[in-house]
């Protein structure tokens, strides 16, 4: 599923028009699809108010109100702008609404809005769409304020009024939806930490724009279905060397668990062989937890002997850690994943990454990415898509920017988004487990981007499954996720044994 900016959505609409799809037809499709989506959240006994503004979103509102009335729901269509603001395709659908025997109510003042809300159980926002620039003007601002304060179910079409479609906007006033029916493709703001909550829950409805004529977008969601489609299979005649020989460089005397969890997660994900390079004093703590792994000395480890290397977890941030990561970056010939403490010390020699010929994968959370880029965490959270793309292109790396919406970016700028997982993952060790899964996937996948994207989904989807099966988001541990991987693999592919 593509993820679009406001401009990219406009280009899709234009492409559809050039292909002969009339705007009135697309508006009919959008309104009817949204209406049938929204009624899943509405009871027949509910009294519904549909707030209708100018532009395409308002036109969708007329179709939604007509569809609801045709289905036997009790709905009022309230136009919040003067008649002269209803133009083009929206005006056509207003005429159809009235010709169908329905009355368009008018918003006049604050008291009027309060009256509508007092007799409503459900509010549907079809006021403003992707064209919002700057803060809301009246009457939208007052209506939004009263809707947000009212005790009713708030639904929205495409995106809630006032929410910017794109990233980079910090301050805004918006309708606080409980659920949003997104038209055709999710916009960037559906995945940003400060704007996503205004959508509530959301899903996408398709409105008939032919994919063949839609301009290409190199930004998409990666789902469980994509994992099923691309997950490497295991041949009946394969052996341990067929599934990747990986090296985990991590852990220390005071932080042995990080390397242990990364290694166990890699093995649970299907790696054939895993070796661990850690401090000698940490071996007794790690070996009982990962009995299948072997150990090598950091001073004599042969980096060229492995199909993939994961480094940085639990190594500390001192001079020794810096020297270790520098050595790994400059001497590893195969794919290299750097995580956790490794990202902290990496900043001093980021330029070395450009000289690597094999894939480099960095897996920061927003704080670590802010450290790498010299930006503030707030900047990262406001504009994660553009900052991640610029960084990945600049240094020629695959960047896994972790969060509730994890953004995976390839060196050429293509991006995937994973929205699986839950707040139980906001706990120490979750990143270590993810690093192990990614290590296996980068060793086994034909496409590096597909493999990393699938690894993120495997991690988040497993966390969701474990919570559904008895754990809570409060007590969920990274080790629970690791031990939940077998169940995930069983459900995803019958070819995995």
Kindly state the percentage of residues in helix: 40-55%
- Which CATH class of the largest domain? Alpha Beta
Query: Which structural class matches the secondary elements?
Result: alpha/beta
- Residue stretches low in confidence (pLDDT < 50, at least 5 long) are none
The number of helical elements comes to: 18
Query: Under CATH, the topology of the largest domain is which?
Result: UDP-N-acetylmuramoyl-L-alanine:D-glutamate ligase
Residue-averaged pLDDT, rounded?
A: 94
Question: Which CATH-level-2 architecture of the largest domain?
Answer: 3-Layer(aba) Sandwich
User: What is Rg?
Assistant: 26 Å
Widest beta sheet: strand line-up: 8-17-16-15-14-13-12-9-10-11
- How far apart the termini lie comes to 30 Å
Largest sheet: 10 strands, mixed
Gross geometry = elongated
Number of separate structural domains: 2
Number of strands: 17
CATH superfamily of the largest domain: Ribokinase
User: What fraction strand?
Assistant: 5-15%
Write the layout of secondary structure elements.
Blueprint: H1 6-18, H2 23-38, E1 47-52, H3 55-70, E2 74-79, H4 88-99, E3 104-106, H5 110-118, E4 122-126, H6 140-149, E5 153-157, E6 179-183, H7 196-199, E7 201-205, E8 219-221, H8 224-230, E9 245-249, H9 256-268, E10 273-277, H10 283-286, E11 294-296, E12 308-311, H11 319-331, E13 336-338, H12 341-346, E14 360-362, H13 366-373, H14 377-382, H15 384-395, E15 398-401, E16 406-409, E17 415-418, H16 430-444, H17 448-468, H18 478-492
């Amino acid at each position: 599923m593509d993820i679009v900016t406001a401009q990219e959505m406009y280009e899709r609409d234009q492409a559809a028009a050039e292909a002969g799809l009339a705007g009135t037809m697309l508006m009919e499709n959008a309104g009817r699809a949204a209406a049938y989506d929204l009624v899943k959240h509405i009871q027949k006994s509910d009294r519904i108010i549909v707030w209708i503004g100018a532009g395409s979103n308002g036109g969708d509102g007329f179709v939604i109100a007509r569809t609801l009335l045709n289905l036997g729901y009790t709905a009022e269509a309230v136009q919040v702008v003067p008649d002269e603001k209803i133009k083009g395709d929206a005006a056509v659908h207003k005429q159809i609404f009235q010709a169908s025997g329905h009355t368009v109510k008018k918003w006049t003042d604050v008291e009027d809005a309060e009256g509508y809300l007092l007799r409503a159980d459900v509010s549907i926002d079809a006021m403003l769409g992707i064209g919002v620039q700057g803060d809301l003007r009246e009457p939208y601002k007052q209506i939004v304020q009263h809707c947000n304060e009212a005790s009713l179910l708030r639904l929205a079409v495409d995106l809630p009024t006032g929410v910017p479609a794109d990233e980079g906007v910090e301050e805004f006033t918006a309708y606080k939806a409980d659920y949003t029916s997104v038209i055709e493709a999710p916009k960037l703001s559906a995945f940003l930490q400060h704007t996503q909550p205004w959508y509530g829950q959301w899903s996408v409805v398709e409105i008939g724009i032919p994919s063949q004529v839609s301009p290409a977008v190199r930004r998409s969601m990666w789902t469980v279905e994509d994992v099923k489609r691309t997950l490497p299979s295991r041949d009946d005649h394969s052996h341990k060397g067929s599934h990747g020989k990986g090296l985990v460089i991590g852990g220390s005397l005071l932080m042995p668990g990080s390397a242990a969890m990364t290694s166990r997660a890699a093995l649970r994900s299907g790696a054939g062989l895993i070796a661990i390079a850690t401090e000698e004093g940490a071996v007794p703590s790690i070996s009982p937890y990962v009995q299948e792994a072997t150990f090598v000395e950091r001073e004599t480890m042969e980096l060229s002997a492995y199909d993939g290397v994961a480094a940085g977890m639990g190594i500390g941030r001192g001079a020794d850690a810096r020297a270790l990561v520098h050595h790994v970056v400059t001497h590893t010939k195969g794919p290299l994943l750097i995580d956790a403490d490794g990202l902290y010390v990496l900043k001093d020699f980021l330029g070395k990454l450009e000289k690597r010929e094999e894939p480099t994968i960095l897996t920061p959370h927003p704080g670590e990415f802010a450290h790498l880029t010299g930006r503030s965490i707030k900047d990262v959270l406001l504009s994660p898509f553009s900052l991640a793309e610029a960084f990945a292109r600049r240094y020629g790396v695959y960047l896994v920017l972790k969060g509730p919406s994890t953004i995976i970016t390839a060196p050429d700028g293509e991006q995937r988004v994973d929205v699986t997982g839950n707040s139980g993952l906001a706990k120490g060790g979750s990143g270590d487990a993810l690093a192990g899964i990614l290590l296996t996937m980068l060793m086994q996948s034909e496409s590096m981007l597909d493999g990393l994207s699938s690894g993120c989904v495997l991690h988040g989807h497993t966390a969701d499954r474990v919570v559904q099966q008895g754990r809570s988001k409060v007590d969920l541990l990274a080790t629970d996720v690791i031990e939940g991987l077998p169940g995930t693999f069983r459900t995803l592919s019958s070819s995995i044994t």
